[in-house]
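Regression report. Comparing outputs from two consecutive submissions.

Submission 1:
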Amino acid sequence: MREDHAVSMYSGKQGAVFGAVVLLHLLMAYVLYAGLAQKIVRALAPAPLNVQEIVQPREAARIEPTVVEWNKPTLYVPPPPDPVISREPDPDTRLAGTTPEKIAPEWTPAQPRTKVEIGVRQDPKHPLKIGSEFYPDGSVRAGEQGRCVVQITVDIGGQVTHASLQSGTGFHRLDDACLNAVRGVRMLPATEDGKPVEKTTALPIVWTLQGR
């Protein structure tokens, strides 16, 4: 009785159901195992390295050394100056049919023009007031004689405009006679290049007694 009952549990519908349940459990266990295993692998796997491509450096351009040739120093000698050639034509070597070049005359400094000057002169028509008739009576009686120099200014018309005693005779009366001799007298004016000009000059006058 017991043997028959054991055989009947794995046969028929009950056996099929039992097998399906077992298969389902196995499938679920596999699915769980597979998913868990992948998570464990991912967790334990090391992080991927950030690998960048290494760029090989380009080969540096090769620089060829240059050789500098040094020349020997040379002494600079300036050329000789051009010779100065006179442009003055030579009458002996002048060619026929040619005209001499115009040569600028050599510049010479202008010479100062000399003025023609003529000093103050006595006018024969208007003589000075000198002589025996103008001799002071007191000087005649006292026997006074002497020489004086009168400085006069004559304008362009010949009129004496100023008179002063530059040097006297030593006698007061004769000195006054020297000044009176030129006052109001017309003279010939001085000239420069023929034109009358005002001039100041010195005029000597001598007083002497006849027979002394």
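Submission 2:
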Amino acid sequence: MSQEDVDVVLLGFPLFEAEDFEGLTRLWHPDGRVTAQPDWPEPGPFEGRDAVIEQFRRLASDMGEHRFRHVEVVAEGDGRVVVSFVWEVQGAGSGAAVASKMAGAYRVEEGRIVEANFRWTVEEALEVAGLGR
């Protein structure tokens, strides 16, 4: 795993916060794929960069405000990066605020994100990434 791969994954967080979908598009491989936890309202899979970016747009449009806190790389290796974070969101319509502790298991190839699997716990993300502790 290279530091460049970690940097690519970490760059996605401020780009999503800024709703910079052009920047996010540059980070993702054309064959990108995203899944969320099975109990998420739209767990995916979202396959292909266009579908991934469209899902990110939908998520952002539902939020009045959103930001990530406590972003931490917890494991890396063999083209995989696992990150834990707290996602703070406020509903655009309801104004309801929620902070969710989550984790993402990413696969990076040739400087682009090929896959991201979002889960509720670090342990689940490590399992998906094949990087169990």
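Expected: both submissions complete independently.
Actual: both completed, but the second showed a warning that disappeared on reload.
Relevant detail on submission 2: Residues 68 and 87 are 5 Å apart (CA to CA).
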